[in-house]
UniProtKB/TrEMBL annotation:
Protein name in the entry: arogenate dehydratase
Any single GO CC term annotated in Swiss-Prot or TrEMBL for this entry: chloroplast stroma
Domain Prephenate dehydratase stretches: 133-310
Principal subcellular localization: plastid
Residue ranges of every copy of the ACT domain listed in the record: 324-415
Amino acid sequence: MQAVSPSHNLNSSSIIRPSKPRKLNRLNRFAVRCVHRYDSVQFPNGVGSSRADWQSSCAILSSKVFSQDQGSGEKSTPHSNSDHLAAAVNGHQTSLDLNLVPIDKNNKPQPPAQKPLSMTDLSPAPMHGSQLRVAYQGVPGAYSEAAAGKAYPNCEAIPCDQFEAAFQAVELWIADRAVLPVENSLGGSIHRNYDLLLRHRLHIVGEVQLPVHHCLLALPGVRKEYLTRVISHPQALSQCEHKLTKLGLNVTREAVDDTAGAAEYIANNNLRDTAAIASARAAELYGLQILADGIQDDSGNVTRFVMLARDPIIPRTDRPFKTSIVFAHDKGTSVLFKVLSAFAFRDISLRKIESRPHRNRPIRLVDDANVGTAKHFEYLFYVDFEASMAEVRAQNALAEVQEFTSFLRVLGSYPMDMTPWCPSRGDEPSL
Ligand SMILES: O=C(O)C(=O)C[C@]1(C(=O)O)C=C[C@@H](O)C=C1
């Protein structure tokens, strides 16, 4: 993976603010709007977020059409009609020809040139024809950069100073994807990214798990007795809480934007009383020595990252998929039990559930007449479940969830990273 230089850091202040968050609709309203737009939709070269909006709407619509065709049966057929329809509405080349019969120069209809789906359709190559550009939060040497490289080998990694800048980089076509942490095996959820997933219109297209192996870094020649301060990303500080104490360090802990940024700061400012918690790669990049290796409190320290794109991928059934949704109900939280039962009845396992308070920020809902109303929800619930949106049981579960909720959005249906959460190098720190 090639990392662009830190001087190319995306600064959130230098990025044009995106337009206001788009309207959020209930699924059936999505579908209705989608039918209307279907006749008139144009795909200019620069496809904007409205296309992504349209695509996710249509993916849901196609799922619904398919479920109706199948009656109430819960069994899904791999590579069934729904796959084709979903393919057609998810940006595959054939979607552009849907209602058009190609005409030759003598005005004779031509048989449609059908292109079979390939793996590249699932994760389309960048339109600019070069390396995939992947935005991550932090500077080179950050774990997020490593996650970007694991998710997209040979990508061009684009450092961003804030999570929000990474979202904006994709929305503004500066990057093709963003790779952002959502959960750590020790520190739990990275709430900021859950909030941002809702505020932005990107789609989750994949996930990747990264074992996180922390080192204590300082300038060459510095001994741990000289240290008065340890700086790092708040997640990294919390992942090493006990080991720092065990190391006998009498230090204050200070949070900074990212782990590698902490290492860079020490090097740039020649700080001999400060150490950073960061990766071995950060030590190498910023010329620091490793004072202690493997200082995370748990050897199986793993962070889960999601890959985000402007367009959703086509859900499939030939490998394990996960689907992430967010929902809310304006009559409080009692709906939660009903929603969870919609999955339980269909034997769909839940992987994660997260609630986020949302009282102070209304969400704009749009009705069938396209009239928007601001709704306040006390809590938003984020759920990851183990099924693909191409499966009828998942489509039916969501149709039921929709009945119980005032707001529902599918954040993405994507292949699961099946790597077991396993220990990183060594349990005890080496000094
Ligand atoms: O600071 C970094 O290096 C990051 O990539 C961020 C981050 C996080 O946000 O959780 C990623 C992985 C580790 O859990 C620690 C920090």
